[in-house]
User: Fold these one by one.
Assistant:
Number 1:
Amino acid sequence: MKDNRYELFPIVDKGGRFLGTISRGHAHDGSKILHPVVHLHVFNSRGELYLQQRPVWKDIQPGKWDTACGGHVNLGEHIDEALHREVGEELGISDFCPRPITRYVFESQRERELVHVHVCTYDRPLHPSNNELAGGRFWPLEEIRGALGKGLFTPNFESELVTYLIPYINKGAGRR
């Protein structure tokens, strides 16, 4: 399997306003043209965090552990629609209640994304897609902290965890 490099994404400014279109291939070729994505961090009631393992065929960070659900916003799609579509495709659920926690610009050597970050608590079974993911599981936060910086996780996940998610958890908001 392979990502469709001709798939079209919106180009946005830092405020999320639509500016034009870009292909997936061009969005990931080092052009660093800003395009929107959605992330969902899924906690269970024990405070463990679900992570997905990216398949080896992915063009960005193959084989690494990452945010429970993440994906590009399609052309003409609203953020909430993209989030629910991606969660349905990747985790096989629709009965979750996401809470937005932040929006920020992430930049790597290959791309630049406007990331819309959400969290939810979910205790029912998840149904990870065999086509979209290489697997997934709930991780105790201490296990995640112990593996930071060892190449196990995507750099984006590590940065988001430390910068946004840990402060959110420390405020007591992660356990609702």
Number 2:
Amino acid sequence: MKKYIAECFGTMTLVVLGCGTAMLVGCDAAAGGGYILTALAFGLAIVASAYCIGNISGCHVNPAVSLGVLIRGGITLKDFFCYLAAQCVGALAGSGLLALIFKLGGVTDMTGGFGSNGLGGVGDNVFAGLIVEIVLTFIFVLCILGVTSSKAGHGSFGGLIIGLTLTGVHILGIGLTGTSVNPARSFGPALVALFAGNTAPIASLWVFIVGPFAGAALAALLYNFLEGKKEK
């Protein structure tokens, strides 16, 4: 149970820091500073969580990562579904907390949707959005599987490497889809936005569920082939 609680709080932290920064600074391409700040916020949230709860739950804080680890043989099917539930609850709690803070403080949400994902950067093209999310999640999860492999030997630098990789995929993806690579991270803000009367994020939410799961599965299958032996 402790590892599920850790996943819940880790995912909440990711949403509060990442989506909260996006809400505050916006992600306007004309003012690229918002891109960098938001990308760094997501990456640093992962770094902090990795060194905080990594030894408890593995710090997946992402259903796509959990799927990749499942395919690698690192967790059981029961753990996968419990992780998924905990991560979604954490993302929803984080989004709700942001909604409360921004409402009470009278702060403007620069994203207009609680930091939710969208397809505006790809011309609302679903196929393009799926490709973006599959490719970016593939890169991110492949990095995680490599860094956490028993054969890697990265030691205490693993969390930093993973956080920097997440920062990198955000730098490219923010202008295209807002960068999900994490179904829970997309679920929380989209649901809170729906409660606030904004239906746009929930309409395209399936893209940010299917895309990351597909990318993670492909990454795990490739890593199984490359390393040749599943982790115990």
Number 3:
Amino acid sequence: MKINVKSEIGPLKTVMLHRPGRELNNLTPETLEKLLFDDIPFLEVAQKEHDIFAQTLRAQGVEVVYLEDLMTETLDESTAIREEFLKQWIEEAGIRTEKYQSIIFEYMNRFITNKELVLKTMEGIALKELKYDRKSSLVDLMSDESKLVVDPMPNLYFTRDPFASIGNGVSVNHMYSETRNRETIYAEYIFKYHRDFKDKVHLYYERYDPFRLEGGDILNLNERTIAVGISQRTSSDAIEFLAKNIFADETSKIDTVLAFDIPEARAFMHLDTVFTQIDYDKFTIHPGILGPLVVYEIKKGDAKGEIKVERVETHLEAILEEYLGIDKVTLIKCGGNDRIASEREQWNDGSNTLCIAPGKIIVYQRNVVTNNLLREHGLEVIEIPSAELSRGRGGPRCMSMPLVREDLK
């Protein structure tokens, strides 16, 4: 499969999702902060809501592939890949002693099908699941049997973040937190070993690169320009590193990286929680960043491997109009001019929309004020339920990773 994502609004052809699994049932009040959740979703309802999301995409002619299936197909390539993955997963789960590495490897290797194995790596492991003699260890005797010895990965249904499609390439990201950085192991193996991607995709960033970078901060504005947020989760060092790698690829048409300096706050977690493109000339926007905005333009330098950076401080509309090459951009405020509605619907990802074709977007049903405003501006708004999905603080864009979009004409 060839990655092809050169805009935010080109007709969506193939998208990757992850259906929420039992990893959500391993959230507890004590682990919420560590695992980056504000609440515990009701799994059964979250799955039903996610299935509606997937079916909505299919009804619009979009091919839906699942992370867990791509990873299963990767492990199906050979037993050697399965063993390599399992050993690396155990190491990255923080299991350091040879004794426990052996116990967990033996336990995990009992899963006959690779699909069962993949789902279990996402779910996490409680001590009571491991059958071995605990009397010879002080640590074991002092541990509660319900203790999680391997943490779950509950954020996986936000597939936008672990890697990002950029033109015909990808960035496999170094995530902000240790909790989420483990998620990127699946992308590493898929792009390294899966028959549809192996040796076919240019890597612009790797999970072992030193600076933090997340996919929610990356927007493909057009085939020549990407925007990246300097945010709570993505550092300026990473953006510079990413830009140099993109410019070094002679097959890439991208010649400009715009770095948007946005507030470091939970509500402004990523650039796509602040604004998303929904039509040729329309964007959703959080009113909190309106006004003068500091943006840095990054282009190739005069010498190989060098870049040129210029600070641009102006209004967001002017920046978007210039780089998109259009006369007028319309910014549609999340929640309109009502401050309470704006803050409430921003918290519930009213600005985090998934555009599946120019002027056609998928949104959360609960953001009533914003959705009505979008319709008033001529958008085709497709609503999905989100009572449980939204507890993870991510919207339709966060829950989807486009792999193929049609090029805009």
Number 4:
Amino acid sequence: MSILKTKPAVFAVGDVYQIMVQAKAETLMWIKCGNNCYYDESNGILRSHCQTHKICVPMKELDCAGEYEVCYREVIERKAYFTESKEENTEKFKFFPVAPNQKQILAYQIADAHNLVDEPVAAVKRFEKEYGKIDFLILNGDIPDHSGAIENFDTIYQIACKITGGEIPIVFARGNHDLRGVFAENLAEHTPNENGNSYFTTRLGNIWALILDCGEDKDDDNSEYAHTVSCTPFRQKQTEYIKSLTKYSQNQYKASGIDYRLVISHIPFTQSFRDPFNIENEIYDEWTQLLNDEVKPHLMLSAHMHEFKIHNSDSQNNRYNHSFTVAVGPEVHLGKNPYYAGIGLQFKDGKIEIILNDQKEIISTFCAE
């Protein structure tokens, strides 16, 4: 019987895949890819006292191998001397990377699931019925309802398992509800990040992506947070991070073979908000101008609003004069009879088609500017 709670989730971060696996019991775990083994370790010590294992594998290696093995030993008793564990077990998974010269790439964004699983998965399946299997999945924040219960993180892996089966890449961005609750400070242990940071870049085939994290949606001193957040300094760090990318642009968004540039941010920081959500105008204006002038993204994907909107450069709600298209979604209604319509993407012939659909039908399509 497998010790794995769900199939692995293969997250793209920088130039590595962070393969993350939930286990049902204390387990020592590693990944075999080709002739190499990569371990879930902390300074040479294999981790077992954890619910989510994280193993980093170089992208080039896994892309080339096209498969990997999850290897593990369930721990019976971990002791200072002569730890007892069960026999080694392995489970093999195929992997299908986004190819550099792929003529058509399909992706799907799920966000604002708030612990829903069946509804967003059904939307993806409906999209695939019309367009074909997706090549990668985007999880853009608020997948758990909040971080007040550790089991809420299971939603991330249940959705990933049902859609990807551990066989295609996932790009993950944090949402503002993820910051709420006693386990929020442990989120980095259960989700992908780069050196502990929830903002980073990555590349899948000819697609380059910048993942940004706005943190919470109100000022740090809002009584709702009761002195538990410091998001303004966190956003200021990201300003410097975006600036740093411009110094190495030839290795980032201007790298050879890049045809599409994405920005992924749970909160659509380019638009206007009413109080108390009208925050960080100077920071968000600077982010937007850096993107306009330097990165020149073809599309920004956002969520948070629980409604579907397309903001072009001439949209009335273009607060900071962004020159790129912003797609906001999904359209979601929570409650006794939940409704979910997500965003599918088709990258083809230098254009990005944006598709809104629910579990029953394709609702509308748009083309990014």
